[in-house]
C-alpha cells in the first residue's frame, strides 16, 4: 500500500476500483474530460444522483470502473463535504481516502492536511495516463460549498442553491469533535473519533511514558442513521437543494408570510411499527423521555430553519436524551425535513438505505417521534429517536462482545487472547462515562489525567498501559472494525506485550457513544 502526500500520484491497478472516505461526510464525484468540465449534469454523482456510467455512490464509498466511463471521460474527481450542512471541515475528523483494487487489497491511502474553514475538499482525482489510470492526491479546499465546486466544474446548479449557503441537505453526523491543535503546532492524534495510545510503561518504569505513543488516528465509520430532505431532485438532474426548501415552489409575496400548516399529531408510532412488523422486526414502545427529547430537538431545528444534530443551545440530540434521564445501550435517530404526517415520514425512511436500516433495526425497543414547524417558511422538521435502554446485563453483553471480537483478531494474528481485568474495566468504564458526561474526547482528562493514571487510581498495579478510544459507533462490531482499520489502534490490539484488557462504554455527549479499551501487562 502507498501513502500519498498532496500532489503525489501512483499508477492504479486495472479494473474496478473501490474508494472509501469513512466518517461524517458526504462523498461526491465529478466525471470530466481533459478540460476539467462536465459534459452535462449527469456527470455529477452525489446523494441525489448516485450513479453515472462507470461510477456508483453507496454511502461514503465510490465504485469506479474506468473501463465503463462515458466516451470522452478521462478524469474522475473525488469530493468530500460535511454531512452536517455548513459545518467547517476543520470541526470534523480529517477525511482519509483509501483506494482498493479489484482484488479488494488496499492500493493507496491519502490523509490530507487537516482542513480549517473550508466546507468542501477536492480530495483526489483519477486520471487517464496513456493506456492506464493513475491516482493523484489533491487536498484542495473550497469555502463556498458543494454548489460552488459544482459550478466550477460546469454543473448547472439550481437557483435556490446560492454560493455560501448550506448546500448539503443531509443530517448532521453522529461523530464527535475533530482534531484539536497539539502543543507546538500540528494536530493531536488523540482528539479524533478513534484515539489510540500505548503501550506506555507506567510511571517509575524508567522511561517517559509519553515518549512512545502509537497515537494512531483512524477512519470514522459512517453513522448508522441518516436523513435527507423529503423531496429529492428529479431523476437525471443535479440540483443541490437548500435544506430548508425540500419542496421548491414560487415564493409568497413579501407582504404575505407563509401559512403555517395544520398537522396531525406527530407522535404516532403505528406507521413505524407496521413497517417494522412487515420486516420481521419487533415493535417499539413509546417512551415519554425520548418523545420529550425529540420534541425539543425538532423545535430547535425549526427555530434555526435547518437540520442539525446540535441546537442553538449547543446541545446535541444525544445530550437531550440523557438530560431527560434516559440511559441507553444503543441509539439511532432520524433528522428529516419535509414530511407532513407520521406515515409520510415512514415512507421517506423506507425510501433511503440508511434511514431504512435504522427504522427497521431490531435492536431498538423504544422510540420517540415529534415534529415542529418553522413559522417563517412553513417547513416541517422531524426528530425520531430509537433506543434500547441501558441495563446491567446489556452492558455486560456489549463489553463481552468487544472482548470476544478483539481476541478473535488476536487469534487470527497468532497471538494469545487477552484476559479480562476488572480493575482495568473499571478505569475504562469511568473514562467512557466521563467523556460522555463532560463532552470531551481525549486520552487526557480536563484535569490532565492519562490512561496510566486512571489505571493506577482504579487499583491496577500493571506496569505497561495502552488505550484505544472511539466515539459515535453503534455496536461492538462497528467499533472493533474501526479500530482494526486504524494502524495505531490495530497495533494496540495486536501488541504481543499486552496480556489483559478492560472495556468501557457510555452513551450521551455530542457523539452519542463513547468506547474505551484499556490494555495492560
From TrEMBL:
Xref: Pfam families: CAP, TerD
Specify residue ranges for compositional bias: Gly residues. 175-187, 195-207
Region of interest (Disordered), ranges = 159-290
The UniProt entry, under InterPro entries, shows: CAP_dom, CAP_sf, TerD
Protein's name in the database: Stress protein
Query: Which spans does this entry mark as compositional bias, Pro residues?
Result: 243-264
For bias kind Low complexity, which ranges apply?
223-242, 270-290
Q: Which residues form the SCP domain?
A: 272-384, 404-519
Identify the species of origin.
Streptomyces minutiscleroticus
Query: What is the top-level taxon of the source organism?
Result: Bacteria
Gene3D superfamilies hit by this protein: CAP, sav2460 like domains
Q: Start and end of every TerD domain?
A: 25-153
